[in-house]
């Protein structure tokens, strides 16, 4: 692969979970990346099948490629690993990847939290590799850019967590809201549940409906509290659309000023975060790594309202993984990514 920016640089990239929705989004974005080359595409349930069997929209870009099984020689000649696996799986593979000193970006929840006790509380199982937790940097570049640059392992943030944290963190840091009072209502498209068939996300259950789930127990709550240093009551909702997250966040006011001003200062130099005067919509960021945020002060109730919109497969997953990898490998942070959504 040749590139005006990177010349002949080819970073051979392995994708674990390449046959899933996030794997497909990684492949779509990497098809236009100037340096990251999809070299090994692991998809256990579809091993031996062509990429187009799971991702027909990628048939032209990966016409001669098939999914592979992960085996003993799977990481030979690999320069970067992306893992888009269900939680619990990366714990069993992480030591092998880290021992080989291969840069590793994991989308699973296994290494996002600071300690094994918190992981067990929210995920219900004992962590199988607690000794590796401190080797991972939490992967939201807008929060931890310098740490990500020097990291060998990054745990990319959850989709709901990314949306809520980017709306709330600057206001917590500015002393504008009480961190013990945060409430997050967020709605996600059905692709956030993955491509495996489930009754709850089948067409007849989702179409024309709007439902809450995971009441007081959704796992992304732990990330929100870790990143903001506060207490969060989080309620996720499922909406009849394919992709996108809109997070509506509330907190009690403790400081003066216009919250929009604090957001504008916090994100003035961020390439993927746009502070808008208008309430953002998921369509504005569909297919992109962009984030649109806004906020309002309500003096009548003494509360701050903050909103953010992201694509759950973009900034909430594959896009953020690539953004982190770009930083880790010394590439342009925005390589292969765009803050511009597909509309209408």
TrEMBL record:
- The Semialdehyde dehydrogenase NAD-binding domain covers 12-151
Catalysed conversion reaction: N-acetyl-L-glutamate 5-semialdehyde + phosphate + NADP(+) = N-acetyl-L-glutamyl 5-phosphate + NADPH + H(+)
Q: What class of enzyme is it?
A: oxidoreductase
Q: In which pathway does it act?
A: Amino-acid biosynthesis; L-arginine biosynthesis; N(2)-acetyl-L-ornithine from L-glutamate: step 3/4
Provide the alphabetized UniProt keywords: Amino-acid biosynthesis, Arginine biosynthesis, Cytoplasm, NADP, Oxidoreductase
Q: Which SMART domains match?
A: Semialdhyde_dh
Keyword DNA damage attached: no
Q: Where does the record place the catalytic residues?
A: 159
Q: Which InterPro entries match?
A: AGPR, AGPR_AS, AGPR_dimerisation_dom, AGPR_type-1, NAD(P)-bd_dom_sf, Semialdehyde_DH_NAD-bd
Q: Return any one Pfam family short name.
A: Semialdhyde_dh
What does the record give as EC number?
A: 1.2.1.38
Instruction: Tell me one GO biological process term.
Output: L-arginine biosynthetic process
Q: Where in the cell is it found?
A: Cytoplasm
Protein family (similarity comment): Belongs to the NAGSA dehydrogenase family. Type 1 subfamily.
| Function statement | Catalyzes the NADPH-dependent reduction of N-acetyl-5-glutamyl phosphate to yield N-acetyl-L-glutamate 5-semialdehyde.
Q: Which NCBIfam families match?
A: argC
What is the protein's name according to its record? N-acetyl-gamma-glutamyl-phosphate reductase
Organism of derivation: Sphingomonas lutea
């Amino acid at each position: 692969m040749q590139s005006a920016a990177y010349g002949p640089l080819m970073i051979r990239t392995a994708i674990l979970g390449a046959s899933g929705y996030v794997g497909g989004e990684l492949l779509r974005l990497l098809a236009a990346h100037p340096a990251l080359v999809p070299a090994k595409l692991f998809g256990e349930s579809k091993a031996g099948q062509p990429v187009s069997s799971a991702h027909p929209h990628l048939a032209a870009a990966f016409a001669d490629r098939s999914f592979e099984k992960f085996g003993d020689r799977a990481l030979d000649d690999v320069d970067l690993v992306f893992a888009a696996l269900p939680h619990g799986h990366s714990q069993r593979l992480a030591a092998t990847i880290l021992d080989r000193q291969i840069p590793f970006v994991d989308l699973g929840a296994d290494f996002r939290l600071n300690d094994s006790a918190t992981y067990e509380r929210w995920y219900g199982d004992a962590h199988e590799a607690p000794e590796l937790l401190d080797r991972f940097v939490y992967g939201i570049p807008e929060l931890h850019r310098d740490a990500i640059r020097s990291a060998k392992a990054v745990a990319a943030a959850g989709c709901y967590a990314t949306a809520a944290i980017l709306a709330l963190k600057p206001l917590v840091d500015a002393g504008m809201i009480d961190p013990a009072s945060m409430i997050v209502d967020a709605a996600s498209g059905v692709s956030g549940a993955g491509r495996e068939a489930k009754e709850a996300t089948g067409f007849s259950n989702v179409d024309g409906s709007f439902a809450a789930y995971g009441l007081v127990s959704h796992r992304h709550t732990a990330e929100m509290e870790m990143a903001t240093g506060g207490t969060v009551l989080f309620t996720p909702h499922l909406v009849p659309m394919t992709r996108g997250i809109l997070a509506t966040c509330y907190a009690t006011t403790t400081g003066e000023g216009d919250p929009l001003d604090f957001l504008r200062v916090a994100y003035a130099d961020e390439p993927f975060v746009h502070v808008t005067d208008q309430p953002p919509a998921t369509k504005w960021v569909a297919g992109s790594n962009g984030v649109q945020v806004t906020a309002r002060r309500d003096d009548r109730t003494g509360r701050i309202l903050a909103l953010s919109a992201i694509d759950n497969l973009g900034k909430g997953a594959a896009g953020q993984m690539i953004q982190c990898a770009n930083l880790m490998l010394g590439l342009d942070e925005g390589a292969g990514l765009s803050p511009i959504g597909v509309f209408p």
